Amino acid sequence: MHKRHLLRATLAVLVAQGFALAPALAADPLKIGLILPMTGQQASTGRQIDAAVKLYMAQNNPVIGGRKVEVIVKDDASTPDQTRRMAQELVVNDKVVALAGFGITPSAMATAPIATQSKTPMVVMAAATSAITEASPFVVRTSFTLPQAAVAIAEWANKNGIKKVVSLVSDYGPGIDAEKYFADRITLNGGQVMEKLRTPLRGPDFAPVLQKVRDASPQALFVFLPSGQGAAFMKQFAERGLDKAGIRLIGTGDITDDDQLNDMGDVALGVVTAHHYAAAHKSPANQKFVDAFKKANNGMRPNFMAVGGYDGIRVIVEGLKASKGEGGEKLLNAMKGQLFESPRGQVLIDGQTRDVVHDMYVRKVERVGGELQNVEFDAIKAMKDPGKSK
Ligand code: DHB
Hints:
This protein is an alpha/beta fold. The protein is built from eleven helices and 15 strands.
């Protein structure tokens, strides 16, 4: 008798709680799945983007239609099979409204079919091979493209009397883009690529290729390596005496990455690169961003990956505001055409290509107030991806 009474009372409580749960369910968070390499060779990319997304969330604390926005971070260790599996789980189990991150091109490429099949917008914050945005109509990019950076530095080389060049790139998507677009542009303007060298993405050894560069004795060496490999490369470049041999080093800004630049030493001084972001970019918006980022991260300096992440989460959150919290095509359409002031300068998400349109700066490494900085001195304004103008 007593037992039955207790059971009934418990049921009553459960029912009451059930009713109480209903409004809580309506206020379920809007979830964003952020897949990053937090460990392994590309870990600095993950660390930078994660910190930037956390900063944006802390600064804006977005609530849309009474629902909080929640970011779920997954570490794929830049293994494409893991990226794909994590994306699948985030879509099916966590019901995320958007996928984001993607430290390297193969991770983005592996996930694109999932974005298409599930109609989930996928914001690429790091990977930069031109073709990624064509892998799915649900891809939006806030990083940059290698053709943008490679064409911008080739133009600078042409204007500055550099005619004979050797190129050295990482042997996968972005490197192949960099090699091709650099060579096409410099030869179009009368220059020549004497030799095209490549190193593997995983565990590259720069010694043998640098010997080849020395033997070829070009005016300049053009380099693209993914974020995180620049410091090891610079060390080898100096150790082999290539700087002393009068071979000028130029490249995409990935090799003078602001995350590592300060540790590179004098060998980096005078290196000219083209890129969309420098921590030293002069604008009030960037100053505010750099200060807040450093303050929240023990003095860590934001690099171009951080800006890709900061702008990427902004594009998603503003998109969700416009779609009133709906995902799918509504969210995708609300991301297209966004125009805003980023720490890098003005950014447009091209409504047709879903790719990023921004200024490509030409910069030179200088010592400024005791720090090595990429100091911008020229720019190609509002540059679209040259990879898409065919
Ligand atoms: C890619 C990765 C990088 O670290 C980088 O600096 C540029 C491009 C990529 O895999 O697409």
